[in-house]
Amino acid sequence: MKKIIRVLLGFVALVFVAVAGFAIFVSARGIPHYDVPKLDAKVAVTPERVAHGQAIVMASCADCHTNPQTRKFSGQLIPDLPAEFGKIHSANITNDKKHGLGNWTDGQIITVLRTGIGPDGRFRVVMPSFVHMSDEDINSVVAFLRSDNALVQADASPSAAQEPSFLTKALTNTVMKPTPLPSQVVEAPAPTDAQAFGRYLVVGRYKCYDCHSKDFKTNNPMEPEKSEGYLAGGNTLLNRQQQEVKSRNLTMDGETGIGDWSEGQFVQAVRFGMSPHGALSYPMPKYSLMSEEEAKAIFAYLRTVPIIKNATPEDGATAKL
Ligand code: HEC
Ligand code: HEC
Q1: What's the 198 CA to ligand 2 centre distance in angstroms?
Q2: How many angstroms is it from 190 CA to the middle of ligand 2?
């Protein structure tokens, strides 16, 4: 009997040492560094790319990177990050040579967007990784960042130091990892193939699935369709006042999804933020530069996505539930 107790105590002590050791390791190591993948790229800046890049950036980057004081992409404290992750600031991505991207190569910008790894090797957290975005779209984003648009004109505010919580450090030392650089050219399907093009917009160009599936933690960036509750909403997000807002079910379920919506209603909701039940609010991005063709293609694709019944309390009228 005594021996068993001694063995058990020994075991408990061992577990304790292991857990304490892991905690000390994680606290001391912080957010990990990785080898920086080598990528030579030189993006030709054309007016078409700048305009196309602007449409993507206004939809997918502006909410996080615009500083309300400077009204430029000089970075800010992410206002809607749950407190458990600590304090994370988006970076200055204006053309400033010291504090922004002025001295970064195009390859370095593309690498951080695709993998999350910065030129110093540090893993950038909270920012989504744009793994499935086409090369042409990524190049257009870079072209916009290099343009003379007021949002990216050099601003000398330094990027703030990150204050990740223990949880964020633990996650980045275990499950949250950089995504790989694509090994071949990534091409978008032709817009004439509406369903394939729509899928691309949802998983590649705009990453609608990221917010509109069950939870960021169970999303699958490499194989988006394997994310839990793919496109059926319910992900708990915060607005700028740190109040909870659930993303909504975008599958074609008649009761809890958008199965009873017309194409026109959908286009109106996505491009102008007006759903049949009223205005859509932050963090649903503003897609005012999205074309009607894109919005229609997304609707065509959503018609092919497996239906999941998942009511969210904020699903327009509660009467729907
Ligand atoms: C959810 C918020 C969010 C979105 C959306 C977002 N970013 Fe970021 N971004 C961040 C945060 C936070 C960091 C800094 C992370 C860190 O230092 O760990 C960052 C860092 C960066 C960096 C690295 C800068 C540096 O100095 O380290 C670049 C470049 C960048 N973002 C560009 C973009 C572009 C382009 C888009 C849109 C295609 C985008 N981001 C979308 C939050 C976001
Ligand atoms: C940053 C997270 C985020 C992203 C990215 C996002 N959404 Fe949303 N979306 C939301 C939230 C949150 C709501 C609920 C807003 C509200 O309650 O006012 C919403 C609401 C909607 C609605 C209204 C549905 C209903 O039942 O009323 C539609 C349609 C929609 N989103 C489509 C899209 C499409 C299409 C994309 C990609 C092009 C997209 N969303 C990308 C967060 C997001």
Answers
A1: 15
A2: 24
What's the full length of the chain, in residues? 321
Asked whether 104 and 43 are in contact (CB, 8 A), the reply is: no
Q: Which atom of ligand 2 is nearest to the CA of 316?
A: 27
Gyration radius of the chain's alpha carbons: 22
Closest ligand relative to 286 C-alpha: 2
Q: What is the DSSP letter of 238?
A: E
Ligand 2, pocket residues at CB < 6 Å: 206-208, 210-212, 237, 245, 247-248, 250, 258, 266, 269-270, 275, 277, 280-281, 283-285, 287, 298, 314-316
Q: Do 233 and 154 share a structural domain?
A: no
Q: Which ligand is nearest to the CA of 211?
A: 2
Cβ atoms of 143 and 57 closer than 8 Å: no
Q: Looking at the domain assignment, is residue 34 inside a domain?
A: no
What does pLDDT average to in each consecutive run of 10 residues of the chain (321 residues)?
82 85 83 94 97 98 96 95 93 98 98 97 94 98 98 96 94 91 96 98 98 94 97 94 93 95 98 94 94 98 97 55 34
Domain span including residue 289: 194-320
Tell me the CATH number at 304: 1.10.760
Let me know if residue 2 belongs to a domain: no
Is there a domain that residue 273 lies in? yes
